Fold:
Amino acid sequence: MNIEKSNIANLPTKYGKFKIRAYKQDNQEHLAIMSENFENIESPYVRIHSECLTGDTLGSLKCDCQNQLDLALKFISKEGGLVIYHRQEGRNIGLLNKVNAYALQDQGRNTIEANLELGFGEDDRDYSVVDEIFKDLGLKKIKLITNNPEKIAYVESLGVEIVERIPAITKINVHNEHYVNTKKEKMGHMF
Ligand SMILES: Nc1nc2c(ncn2[C@@H]2O[C@H](COP(=O)(O)OP(=O)(O)OP(=O)(O)O)[C@@H](O)[C@H]2O)c(=O)[nH]1
Ligand SMILES: [Zn+2]
Structure:
C-alpha cells in the first residue's frame, strides 16, 4: 500500500493548540490531529472521525457528526490524544452518492436502504489507513471514543489494545432521531 505523509505542523484552533500530519493513500487524504502533549501519553484518547461535509462543515441536523467532532476535539485538547479525520465521506460512497442517498431518504428510505438501493453496501468504509497512522505514531494502547462496534473490532484486529471505550453520544434532535435509531437497531451501535 502506497502511503505518503506530510511533515508535522502546528494548528492553533478554538479548541486549543494541536499538531497535524496529513496522509495520502491512493486519492484520499486524511489527517491526524494530535494534542500538544500527545507523545508523552501512554494510552492516548483516540477518535476515528469519518468525514461528513454536510454535518461537520454545514451543521446538518440529519446526523450527529458535527456534535461528535466537536466533542472529540474538546475532549482531546483537554485530556490528550488524537483525532483521525478519516476522509471517507458518506461511509465511503462519496458526496454525490450520499446526496442521492439523502434524496431517497426524503422519500422514506432509511440510511441503510438508501445505500443498498444505490448499489452500495450499508457501510463501505476501509480503515487500512488507520493501521498506517497508528504504526507511524507508535500507538499500541488507546482509549477509543466511539459507539461503533466495527471500529472497535478493526482496532483490536491490529493488535492495538483498547484500555477503555468512551461513548460518542451527543444530543438527539427531531431530524437525526431516525438516523441514530437505525444505527442502534440495524448497525449495532452502542447508544
Ligand atoms: N451513505 C450515507 N452516509 C452517511 C449518512 N449519514 C451519515 N453518513 C456518513 O456516515 C459517516 C459517519 O458514520 P456514523 O455511522 O454516523 O458513525 P460512526 O463513525 O460509524 O460511529 P461513531 O464512531 O460511533 O461515531 C460519515 O462518513 C458520514 O458522512 C447517510 O445517510 N448515508
Ligand atoms: Zn454526518
Observations:
- Residues 82 and 185 are 29 Å apart (CA to CA).
- The domain at 3-88+125-187 is CATH 3.40.50.10990 (Rossmann fold).
- Helices lie at 53-57, 65-79, 89-92, 95-106, 111-117, 128-137, 149-157, 177-187.
- The longest strand covers residues 16-25.
